[in-house]
Design goal:
With 446 residues, this protein is α/β, with parallel strands linked by helices. The protein contains twelve helices and 20 strands.
């Protein structure tokens, strides 16, 4: 694509710096931040002491850092439950905080997160500047956010970050999908920031209204919240529907906006100026070997009011062994987020990840929406794929999908066509894996 090279970097010199220099910058930020946190943050002080470290000032090397305890979401949740409503991961008095967000609560109780003036207006916005520049956006772009702007941080950071580019941010809050399509056209949006599922859904709504989304003028879409944009078949579908270049992005409430894609589009870069990334064996905590899949574990370097050190993201990733064609020296996660550490299904002894099934389903243009049903047959888990199929011969499409699953994943599963518009659509994190507790199969009676 024709973006001039100075546009695709936010900080060219540092994004392409030798890895040793990156590590040195990280170390400087990390140790300074840790000292500040140690002095006044009760949560981290207690954790560090419980791990047998007398003082963070004793931390002398990356090896020492690797002995720092990993943090899981359940520990944050327990702290907030014991100290409502914000918990004790606070470095400053409450008056210093200016924003509150909470997680979408797809798993258990939502976590709340407070931001300071510095972490919100400066750090979050800067992290998004890397995302936008990587996708080739700049001044003159008009970025539309079809997002509810509720308590979930979601794309709030992206909205805030647009001003660092001199781009125009357009809220899609408080609008239904047809109204959003109208706004995109009326205000001349050039970029769209949403989940991959919602990008597909909005295109579907457009088609239902006789609008070709590719004719709306959106030339770039950026997606986060689900692995979708990293799944080749999902990406191709979004690209062809919107006539746009599709970019993956990754972030979490607990960690920040850490991952972005460059024009080479060979996986997610981790912004190593603002985060320390480790890929670890989820069980042992030991670093995954080259090319091995492990759990992404993250430390942020600019959110000292409510930081995380060695946070277990729960995401499965693979570190690329080769440098990226774009010239960045930042770590690269091949294939983006591959799925969740805990979302693996075992079907008749075969490990099956929902993202692998999605990658197959999305190759079939006739499939509008899908759901993965998990149920028990005897003591064993079984899966059934439900497909909303647009057009003729739904049974033939279902058979072809079943055949593709058999060939690519190595298992035979039931694939059934369901009526159009019978499966849920999602604006935020899609929940397409549904565990049925009753044994009745919708198709076993037919
Ligand atoms: Zn790159």
């Amino acid at each position: 694509m024709g973006a001039p090279t100075d546009v695709v970097f936010f900080d060219r010199e540092r994004e392409t710096a030798p890895v040793e220099r990156l590590r040195a910058w990280q170390w400087e930020r990390l140790t300074a931040g840790l000292r500040e946190v140690w002095a006044s943050n009760p949560f981290w002080r207690a954790r560090v002491e419980a791990a047998g470290l007398r003082d963070v000032r004793d931390l002398a090397s990356w090896d020492d850092f690797a002995a720092f305890p990993r943090l899981g979401k359940t520990e944050l949740a327990a702290d907030q439950a014991a100290h409502p409503p914000f918990g004790t991961n606070l470095t400053y008095p409450l008056e210093r905080y200016i924003r509150v967000f909470q997680t979408s609560g797809t798993t258990g109780q939502p976590l709340r997160w407070l931001e300071t003036e510095e972490s919100w207006t400066s750090w979050w916005a800067r992290c998004w500047a890397f995302v936008y520049r990587g996708a080739g956006l700049g001044p003159g772009d008009r970025i539309f956010f079809p997002f509810s702007f509720g308590l979930f941080v979601g794309f709030w950071g992206g909205f805030e970050g647009a001003r660092t580019l001199g781009a125009l941010a357009i809220s899609g809050g408080g609008q239904d999908s047809p109204t959003r399509l109208h706004r995109i056209r009326e205000l001349g949006a050039t970029a769209l920031v949403c989940t991959p599922s919602y990008g597909l859904h909005l295109a579907e709504v457009a088609a239902g209204q006789g609008i070709d989304p590719a004719g709306l003028g959106v030339r770039t879409t950026i997606h986060a919240g689900e692995p979708g944009a990293g799944i080749p078949a999902v990406r191709r579908r979004l690209e062809s529907l919107w006539g746009a270049r599709v970019y993956d992005h990754a972030g979490m409430t607990e960690v920040g906006a850490y991952g972005f894609e460059c024009a080479a589009q060979t996986g997610l870069h981790v912004n190593e100026l603002e985060f320390v990334a480790e890929v670890l064996d989820p069980e042992t905590g030991r670093p995954a070997g080259p090319g091995e899949v492990g759990e992404l574990t993250l430390t942020n370097l600019g959110r000292w009011g409510s930081p995380v050190f060695r946070y277990r993201s729960g995401d499965r990733v693979r570190l690329a062994a080769t440098p990226c064609a774009c010239g960045r020296t930042f770590a690269r996660l091949e294939g983006g987020i591959l799925g969740r550490v805990d979302d693996m299904l075992v079907i008749r002894g075969v490990n099956v990840f929902p993202s692998a099934l999605e990658g197959i389903v999305r190759r079939f243009d006739a499939v509008d929406e899908f759901q993965i049903e998990v149920f028990q047959r005897g003591a064993m888990d079984e899966v059934r794929l439900l497909l909303e199929i647009d057009g003729h011969a739904p049974d033939t499409v279902a058979e072809r999908v079943a055949e593709a699953v058999r060939r690519d994943v190595g298992i035979r599963i039931e694939v059934a066509a369901v009526p159009a518009r019978s499966l849920p659509r999602y604006e935020l994190k899609a929940r397409r894996v549904v565990r049925r507790t009753d044994e009745t199969s919708p198709s076993s009676t037919s």
